[in-house]
Amino acid sequence: TAYEVGTTQAALDNLLKIRRSFDEFALPSYPPFVAGKTVKSYSGVLRWPQKLLRLPAGTDVSLFTNVSENFTPNGSQTDAYGVVLPSPQGKTREFGGNLSFLDNRFSLRVNHYETKIKDSNIGRISALSATINNAVLQTIGAWASELNRNPDASRLADIDLMLSAFPANYKELIRFQYTGSVATQNFALTTVQLPSYSDTADLVARGTEIDLIYNPTRNWRILFNVSKNETVQTSIAPGTRELRARLDAVFKTLANRPRLGSSTGYTFPRDATGRVTTLDAGAGEGTLGAFVFSDIDVPLRTTLAAEGVSSPEIRKYRANIVTNYTFDRESRFKGFGVGTGIRWQDKVGIGYPTSYSPEGSVFIDRNNPYYGPAETNVDVFASYGRKIFRNKIDWKLQLNVRNAIGDGDLIAITTQPDGKPASVRLPPDRRWYLTNTFSF
């Protein structure tokens, strides 16, 4: 919690005075309330009544369920107009069962869950950032500076038109101010960006997890895990969509204006009296309309294409298996142990085919995403243990090699509209760990 501290006049009169208490500062007794909610969780377990009816072969069964609420206070994230966003909140429901038999040598756990989150913060998506930072603030700043090169081609009316689409207090929020003068060719417009504006979406995540543990012998242990997950987004980026709709008429009116001012040497068309007849861009100059289409509309439509469908960016299936074996005390390899772990991840969506229709609109083929490949990584480990110091201390030495086996090629994480990689990441590196453990 931050406080604004004010000093008394007496303290200001003597800056060298040694302060021995907080009496000279005006502090609020309690921080202001921002957001709050009471969250509740319920859970229950139903076990088989072994005392009433014992199951054969050491079998045991139980069922469980859980309902929990989630709430994350949001005190800083705002929308494009400086209004604090609602706090994310949600609810998780899960149920499943446990089955074990052969005196716990075999156990199976199945769990199904569903999580719903409202107003989840998705950050400052590219379309939102491009609208505020580039299409608006950067553009009006360039238009103000245009007066230093072409004082008879003022764009101040265009700046006023751009900002007329925003709430009345927006100029105050961005600290809108003209500085300098045209006469000295240092006329400029200064603004600031709002520090923490972003957007939200609603999420529904569903999944099923299965865990299986099997101990074939006293020394051998196997653990297997498989999961299926999917996430669906709804109400994606409502703030960005509202902002784009708010600016639509203005963007259409100013579409042919050069976004970053006219190029050096460009001469505006003039009439017989020498008056500038248009402020539109010349041949080859980047226009505001072209920027809005390529940097705002296309990314926004790509983002909104995820509305209501399972996200391919979430790997649908995952599987892991871990096994270890410890040699018998009577074996010639007494004290040694070996093991391995295999991690597999399903393919993942990294982009969508995108094309333009003859009338210039964008088509995003949501049904045929580009996928990154499935990934498989293998870990191995070996250990040796024995008692030392007159059998008073258990010593264990273990060597782990993480990603001992795995693809070493670069991994694409996003694609261009034609399917070519747009960005890549390094594969997981191979790591060696040697650990000593002393237990006493």
Please specify the SSE layout and strand pairing.
Layout: E1 6-7, H1 9-13, E2 25-26, E3 41-47, E4 60-71, E5 89-101, E6 106-123, H2 126-145, H3 156-163, H4 170-173, E7 177-179, E8 188-190, E9 199-217, E10 220-234, H5 238-253, H6 288-304, E11 317-326, E12 336-345, E13 348-351, E14 354-356, E15 362-364, E16 370-372, E17 375-388, E18 393-405, E19 411-415, E20 421-425, E21 431-439
In brief, what are we looking at here?
With 440 residues, the protein is of the alpha+beta class. It is built from 6 helices and 21 strands.
Could you characterize what this model shows?
This protein has helices spanning 9-13, 126-145, 156-163, 170-173, 238-253, 288-304; strands spanning 6-7, 25-26, 41-47, 60-71, 89-101, 106-123, 177-179, 188-190, 199-217, 220-234, 317-326, 336-345, 348-351, 354-356, 362-364, 370-372, 375-388, 393-405, 411-415, 421-425, 431-439. By secondary structure, it is of the alpha+beta class. The strands form six sheets. It has an eleven-stranded antiparallel β-sheet with strand order 3-4-5-6-9-10-11-12-17-18-21. Strands 1-2 form a two-stranded antiparallel ribbon. A hairpin with a 5-residue loop joins strand 14 and strand 15 (362-364). Helix 2 (126-145) runs antiparallel to helix 6. The model is unreliable at 1-6 (pLDDT under 50).
